[in-house]
Design a protein that fits this description.
single chain; 265 residues; alpha/beta; Protein-Tyrosine Phosphatase, Chain A; 5-stranded mixed β-sheet; two-stranded antiparallel ribbon; 8 helices; 7 strands
């Protein structure tokens, strides 16, 4: 179930609780429920694929959520944070996995224990979770994306180019979303292709699945990756014909150095 349907269902339940309490005469107690319901309905609309407006939550490029967002959308933001922490605590899945040398994919790093070693450069694919103090010392790049939705092809390309520069400096890279199952996997697929580890994003998905079996990309993730792949191939063809310049990025590898072309949107 996509986030818009799930949050709409949550909004309906909260609205039912509000009506029930109000009919019993508990007007003051019922007010928080109607407010939480309205917030949830707003998030459900903004996260619908036809609208897809993660900027609604106001997450900044440094990973922080402004105070107005925490106040207005508090019922949603703290619900997803509590739900995520609870699910992570009861899950036996590791917080992250290394999918190739120096490249990790996983869930929200809310503590140092959930952060890969080596002070990795972090690509954050969440719109709803903040950058915590535990990772404030790490290089950081954010592409805010709703849960179960996909980053835009241009956002994937920007994240990949940023990651390539970090790998060129021998920095490990950690790509995360809430649980490391969808949004972050899509970006990691693209990075593995750019690094030359995988021939295409489908092969990259299989590589990641071998190391992190619970990944679960949906049709939106695959569509975005397909569009990214087509644009990247088109960009390389135009570059070979001399239509525009594309910078070459030299990447470190345990056995050899591979040259990868990074296309810009």
């Amino acid at each position: 179930m996509g986030i818009s349907k799930l949050i709409a269902l949550k909004a309906s339940v909260l609205l039912s609780v509000f009506v029930f309490l109000k009919n019993l005469g508990f007007k003051l107690i019922s007010i928080p429920f109607i407010y939480a319901s309205l917030v949830s309905f707003l998030v459900a609309i903004a996260s619908h694929p036809s609208i897809n407006l993660p900027l609604l939550l106001g997450k900044k490029s440094d990973g922080s959520l402004p105070i107005w967002s925490r106040i207005i959308f508090g019922p949603f933001l703290y619900f997803v944070r509590l739900f995520g922490l609870t699910r992570r605590l009861v899950s036996k899945e590791p917080p992250y996995n290394e999918v190739c040398e120096g490249v990790y994919v996983g869930g929200w790093p809310y503590s140092l224990k959930t952060l890969p070693p080596g002070e990795p450069a972090i690509i954050d694919c969440t719109a709803e979770l903040p950058r915590t103090l535990a990772v404030s010392h790490c290089s950081y790049f954010c592409i805010p994306t709703w849960d179960t939705r996909a980053p835009q092809p241009s956002e994937i390309e920007s994240a990949v180019n940023w990651a390539l520069r970090k790998r060129n400096l021998n920095k490990p890279v950690f790509i995360h979303c809430a649980f490391g199952h969808g949004r972050s996997v899509a970006v990691t697929c693209a990075l593995l292709v750019a690094l030359g580890v995988a021939e295409d994003w489908k092969s990259a998905e299989n590589i990641i699945r071998e190391r992190r079996p619970c990944i679960n990309m949906n049709s939106l993730h695959r569509k975005s990756l397909e569009e990214w792949s087509m644009h990247r191939l088109s960009s390389k063809t135009r570059n070979e014909e001399g239509s525009f310049n594309v910078s070459d990025v030299l990447l470190p590898n345990s056995s050899q150095q591979k040259r990868v072309r990074g296309a810009k949107y």
